[in-house]
Amino acid sequence: MFWNALSSRDAAKFGRLLKFYAAAVIIGPIVIVTYEWAKARMSLLWRRFLTKRALNAYTRKLAYYNLENEGAVTNVDQRIAEDIRTFTDRAVNLMCIVVVSAIDLVTFSVILFRIYPPLYVALLAYAAVGTGVTLVLGSRLVSLREGQLTAEADARFSLLRLKDNVESVAFYGGEATERQELFRRFASVFANASRLVSWERNVAYVTRGYKYVVQILPSMVVAPVFFKGKMELGAISQTYFSFNHVLADVSLIVSELSSLAEFAAGARRLGTLTDALDQEGRSESAVPVLEPAAIKAAAVDGAAATPAGAVTQRVLATSVDPVIRLTDVSITTPGVRPRSLVQGVSLAVPTGSRLLIMGDSGVGKSSLLRTIAGLWTAGSGTVDRPAVSDVLFLPQRPYMTLGSLRENAAYPATPASVANPGGVTDEAILRVLQAVNLGSLAERAGGLGARGERLAGVLSLGEQQRLAFARVVLSGRRVVCLDESTSALDVENEARMYGLLADAGVTVVSVGNRPTLFRHHDTVLRLEGGGGGPWRRRRRRRGERWRP
Ligand SMILES: Nc1ncnc2c1ncn2[C@@H]1O[C@H](COP(=O)(O)OP(=O)(O)OP(=O)(O)O)[C@@H](O)[C@H]1O
Predict the structure, then answer these.
(1) Into how many domains does the chain fold?
(2) What share of the chain is helix, strand, coil (3-state, %, to 5)?
(3) Are 66 and 100 part of one and the same domain?
(4) 341 lines ligand 1 (CB under 6 A)
(5) Containing domain of residue 514, as a range?
(6) Pocket lining: 531 vs ligand 1, CB cutoff 6 Å
């Protein structure tokens, strides 16, 4: 129209069109910026929703533990932190492109069809063939992109592992080995990237060729009509304009292939994670809390409800005594090649008693604790125990959170519940730190509220183990399972820790082989023989000393 007005020297029409364009250039930027903002906002809201859902499912019950142990999903961190973002960004972008293209397609199809229908039909046929070829090439691009995401995540993981173990590596002088491993992982990143770049080049040959070759089509079709004087110059430019619009709209898959491949790869990785988390959610069985009177009846129901090859877990009310009871418990290692560890253990842990589980390295002591905690289920027999929230399990290397010393001492209480009126007070924390012989820790750490990112790096293992005992006292739990939790302590500090538990009347189940542990327990369970050998349990006689 602009060109027609100029060529016909129609100043009035030209002026009207100029005003129209002036309005468009003022409104245009506002519309475009608002559109971009709306897209970014929608993507952010969606990402927030998906991240929240994934984090909830991942941290619910034992999903995080099972996913890691089963190895079903790798790089969960990257999937939650990055793949969700890529997915939502790309999905919103593509959705908007599809909507805009659909409107555009309808508008310009009408114009192009009116000008010259055969040109329109030829264009659709051309786009259909181009899209088909691109889809075939694209499927390889998706798997290469997926491989790239995995390789990048694996490489980053090796760097994080080195970062988390700097001291061990430095002591071993293991730099050369670490370097080799880092290079090996980054070599896979580059090898896959190189395949990806080559494949993108091949795809680009096709997509570029597709765009250029078709440009000749409108000229070939409309030039003869123009030369015969049956078409105005303006109509030619209109044809070109409409043709290119329709071409762009029907070639969406061709032009957005790279973006689509990235979106599909991210969506696939996210799908694997979501499926695994949903699976975990479904397999989560609600275990009823049994009062004393209900225990006998539940013995029948509980056994029937347990899948074959699994240890029956029954949760007892805190009032039930004995607090823990194992009935004919046999354990096998999890995974595809199960190995028999402990066989046919039956025992009861009365309230306030102290049981020590001993045995050779690898015999299955920690596995027995894992089974009591419900982390491992492979095997048979029945475990009766209080809810996990009523028992504190202390591993050999205590977990240090990223929170402050206050939050670390009160762990696993949430920071919010610590801050509540009625939560753990600073006075109580300082008193308990004193009791576990960490009286100067708060001052050294810069106060109870100082951020604790480096706490794990700064505290010795023995100090961390004493902090873990502080957690037992502060949590007020009546049952505690200790897995070599005093391995780094001197005899005096060990006695002090067990003394604290005895004073509080806490029921204790310990795992360990240190001779000094013997005196802090009243019953010993000795697991014997590799591969599920016999076991012995006996009560320690008063004043009896350790005999290996
Ligand atoms: N996730 C797992 N999958 C398969 N086997 C495992 C797994 N975890 C541990 N095991 C194996 O189970 C056996 C028992 O391990 P466990 O940690 O219970 O031994 P332990 O008696 O506590 O040994 P230690 O005194 O050396 O700590 C070991 O041979 C170990 O390699």
Answers:
(1) 3
(2) 65, 10, 25
(3) yes
(4) yes
(5) 303-400+459-539
(6) no
